[in-house]
Amino acid sequence: MILLWVMSLVNALSWAIVQLESSLALEIRTQALVQRSLDQFQRTEEALLNCEMHLMNQTRPEIQEIDLVIDKVNHTAQGSHCHIRMISPAFYEVQSIQGMHLRSVLMYQAKNHRFKRISWQRVYE
Predict the structure, then answer these.
(1) Is pLDDT of 106 > 60?
(2) Quick one: CA dihedral 19, 21, 24, 25, positive or negative?
(3) How far, in Å, CA of 8 to CA of 57, rounded?
(4) What secondary structure letter does DSSP report for 107?
(5) Structural domain of 81
(6) CA dist 78 to 48, 50, 84, 110, 111, Å?
(7) Among 24, 79, 91, 125, which residue has the least CB neighbours within 10 Å?
């Protein structure tokens, strides 16, 4: 009787250990996925900022000469690409096309000849 009780106790403990191990493995996978997504978001945000800085560094006459869509404008040595699209003379849309897709809208302020980011969002395709 005591042997049967000890065996059931050992069986219950081994089941608990197996459940704990699988839970721990799932948590490790989740943390790795979160970290990978965060790294990808940071790289994409940096590429988007580079595209925005490229647009912000141009003078107004140069901006007016930009076509409505500039495809694959290379801004960094890593080969980050973006689309720059004129929505109106005062608004420009910048979208990253590599990695996670992000889009931002910049407003040109004619008073002080500067651009200001007014929104950004992740683009789900």
Answers:
(1) yes
(2) negative
(3) 73
(4) E
(5) 2-122
(6) 13, 12, 19, 33, 35
(7) 125
What DSSP character marks residue 98?
S
pTM, two decimal places? 0.65
CA distances 119 to 16, 94, 122, Å, are: 49, 11, 11
Highest mean pLDDT among 33-42, 88-97, 101-110: 33-42
Distance from the first to the final alpha carbon of the chain: 63
Label residue 48 exposed, middle or buried (CB < 10 Å: 0-12, 13-18, 19+).
Answer: buried
Residues 6+ apart with CB under 8 A from 74: 80, 81
Tell me, letter by letter, the H, E, C secondary structure of 25-93.
HHHHHHHHHHHHHHHHHHHHHHHHHHHHHHHHCCCHHHHHCCCCEECCCCCCCCCCCEEEEEEECCEEE
